[in-house]
Design goal:
It is built from nine helices and no strands. By secondary structure, it is mostly helical. The longest helix is centred in the N-terminal third of the chain and has 39 residues.
Length: about 190
């Protein structure tokens, strides 16, 4: 990866691209899996560095508090006297939560919305009143490959849950034999354990 691509990814992660540049970037994410993998890696690093900076500030605050406590005579523990520590901890939790939310919100393309919908709706298909037939239709007609693969994976899981191992095994075997499938390794593991 050259420095120009790195700078472009960094600008995307920091939401500094123009609308046209962002659309081009997201289009490239859809069609270039190596680039998408690099962006995901950079995004994880970006969030990781933010977490490290927060942790460093928290440790510095903790050291200052410890030094202040050594200077002061020992007093009984009071939640109100520990407010700097509690506020620092709350800040860390808040910043991590906001970072996670922002990481989930970076992509606003149609594919990202569909993937989020499938993720949210398909985790407990049997319990969420989404007809099984709809899930099967998504696995065949979804606009993106990733969405189709997720739906296909969940169809197989529903078959397993319903005790229809023959149908599930057929789908899982097809997934396991396709190394480009997003759930290839998971399907392979299940097929081997059956």
């Amino acid at each position: 990866m050259n420095s120009g691509q790195f700078e472009r990814i960094e600008a995307y992660l920091q939401n500094q691209l123009s609308e046209a540049e962002r659309r081009d970037f997201e289009s490239e994410l859809q069609y270039n899996s190596a680039f998408r993998l690099e962006v995901e890696t950079q995004q994880k690093l970006y969030i990781g560095f933010q977490a490290l900076a927060i942790e460093k500030r928290l440790n510095a605050s903790k050291k200052r508090t410890q030094i202040q406590q050594r200077i002061k005579p020992k007093q009984p523990f009071s939640v109100f006297k520990q407010w700097p520590v509690w506020s620092a901890a709350a800040s860390v939790v808040l910043i991590i939560g906001i970072s996670w939310w922002m990481a989930k919100s970076f992509g606003s393309s149609r594919e990202t919305e569909i993937v989020a919908l499938v993720d949210r709706e398909m985790t407990d298909v049997q319990y969420k009143s989404l007809p099984f037939e709809s899930l099967q239709n998504i696995s065949k007609t979804a606009p993106s490959r990733l969405t189709r693969e997720k739906a296909e994976w969940y169809v197989a899981l529903v078959y397993l849950k319903k005790g229809k191992t023959k149908e599930a095994n057929k789908i899982l075997a097809r997934i396991a034999h396709n190394p480009k499938h997003h759930y290839h390794l998971r399907a392979k593991k299940i097929v081997q354990s059956m």
